[in-house]
Amino acid sequence: MKDKPRGEGGVTAIRYDFSNNRNMCAVSCGQILLDPMVAAQVTSTYVDWLNDTEVNAYLEVRHHRQTIDGAMAYVAAKIAEPHTCLFAAYENGRFIGTAKLDSFRPYHGTAMVAFMFGEKSVWGRGLGSQMVMAACHFGFQRIGLRKINAGCYGRNIASHKLLEKCGFSLEGCQTDQVMTKDGPDDVLIFGLLASAYPHASFPAAFADAN
Ligand SMILES: CC(C)(COP(=O)(O)OP(=O)(O)OC[C@H]1O[C@@H](n2cnc3c(N)ncnc32)[C@H](O)[C@@H]1OP(=O)(O)O)[C@@H](O)C(=O)NCCC(=O)NCCS
Q1: Which of 34, 56, 115, 208 shows the greatest Cβ crowding within 10 Å of its Cβ?
Q2: Average predicted confidence (pLDDT) for the chain
Q3: Ligand 1 site-directed mutation target among 121, 129, 131, most atoms within 8 Å of CB
Q4: Domain 22-202 in CATH: superfamily?
């Protein structure tokens, strides 16, 4: 069968390179630096983020009280997973949140991106979009993903707008899929094809550390 170029539903030269510690490296976009996360970053501040009801309002971590030991075990397990890329997000050297690529499907060339700023003071400044663009840049350029997906609760307007700003398209809606303190909510499914990246609203400069 003839290979189709990217963007026409086919795959030519995809390389899923998780070798060399999953090919992890630092990647930056605008003011955000994503650095591979290490267990030492699990401090009481990090755990407080996870337990903050504003931060976790639309995150699954809200269902259980988070502890240092539990968070440490979670982060260590994610770091050990061969196909999960967990990043710490920094602005001017300050640790402000995390981004993750996981649910990697090698036969399809897809993964899911997830993101969170625990430092609420940075919300609304456009940094979330930079964080997700940096993670997508890593997924497409370093791993060779064909498509990246994301899911967010219908009421999570910031997340919804952020994903659209990053070029994601709304692909589906799971009606009343989850329960929140305000009642049932939809889960919106988004997707971004490598062929649609980078697009006009991406900052011109991305930088890998190596
Ligand atoms: C989701 C999150 C990362 C957004 O980060 P952020 O830095 O505030 O996002 P940005 O500033 O890049 O905003 C992206 C877009 O959303 C809009 N937006 C942000 N917060 C909004 C809000 N509360 N209501 C409406 N629009 C909002 C912004 O205006 C921007 O659009 P614009 O450039 O057209 O103005 C941050 O709110 C967060 O960490 N929340 C808690 C964890 C979470 O919910 N993670 C996502 C799970 S799916």
Answers
A1: 34
A2: 86
A3: 129
A4: Gcn5-related N-acetyltransferase (GNAT) (3.40.630.30)
